């Protein structure tokens, strides 16, 4: 059976990002430099979950040629249940999650309105503090089969990220305004028009 590679591509609904390493690569467990993020998908987002399941199924079909013509019994799939695997992390409650990575830096942008053609226009995000663990985004993913040292499964490739909403920082990071709102600082002139942290 021939499968069109577009069958393995998914654009998520609004999801939350965690463990964000998208502006600079970070070394993974195999010693490879990868751009990556965890993506938390609400269990209520049935449409995104349906699309992911279909894309994973398509990647499994593509993988049969890598796996000797059959599906391995211990096949690893990317989508995991946050309630089961991260019961002590409230951010993962009520969510499925997956880890997506890429050898290349993903496109990172935000929507800035509609153009004359009616299509959404985007602005590239270059400030690494603007997309962080806890913000919300729509993410373009591509699912693909792998066979590495006896580990067989389907992984999520990270294509592009469009930030759609701010959120509370994950991982215990606090907000600078909250931390220092009541602190005294000597010899500082504050111009309300230039409060760059607001």
Write structural notes for this entry:
- This is DUF2815 family protein.
- This protein has helices at 46-63, 82-85, 176-180; strands at residues 9-11, 15-27, 33-42, 80-81, 95-102, 107-114, 120-124, 136-148, 151-165.
- The protein is mainly beta.
- Strands 2-3-5-9-8 form a five-stranded mixed barrel.
- Mean pLDDT is 89; it is low at 193-198.
Q: Outline of this structure?
A:
The protein is mainly beta. It is built from three helices and nine strands, in the order βββαβαβββββα. The chain is globular, with a radius of gyration of 20 Å.
Major beta sheet summary: 5 strands, mixed, barrel
Helicity, as a percent range: 10-25%
As laid out across the biggest beta sheet, the strand order is: 2-3-5-9-8
Number of helices: 3
Mean pLDDT: 89
The SSE order reads EEEHEHEEEEEH
Oligomeric state of shown chains: single chain
**Low-confidence runs of at least 5 consecutive residues:** 193-198
N- to C-terminal separation? Answer: 55 Å
Number of domains: 1
Q: Give Rg in angstroms.
A: 20 Å
CATH class, anyone? Mainly Beta
Organism: Alicyclobacillus fastidiosus
InterPro entries: Enc34_ssDNA-bd (IPR022595), NA-bd_OB-fold (IPR012340)
Protein name: DUF2815 family protein
Describe this protein with a few key phrases.
mainly beta; 3 helices; 198 residues; OB fold (Dihydrolipoamide Acetyltransferase, E2P); 9 strands
Task: Give the arrangement of secondary structure elements.
Elements: E1 9-11, E2 15-27, E3 33-42, H1 46-63, E4 80-81, H2 82-85, E5 95-102, E6 107-114, E7 120-124, E8 136-148, E9 151-165, H3 176-180
Organism: Alicyclobacillus fastidiosus
Protein name: DUF2815 family protein
Pfam family, one: Enc34_ssDNA-bd
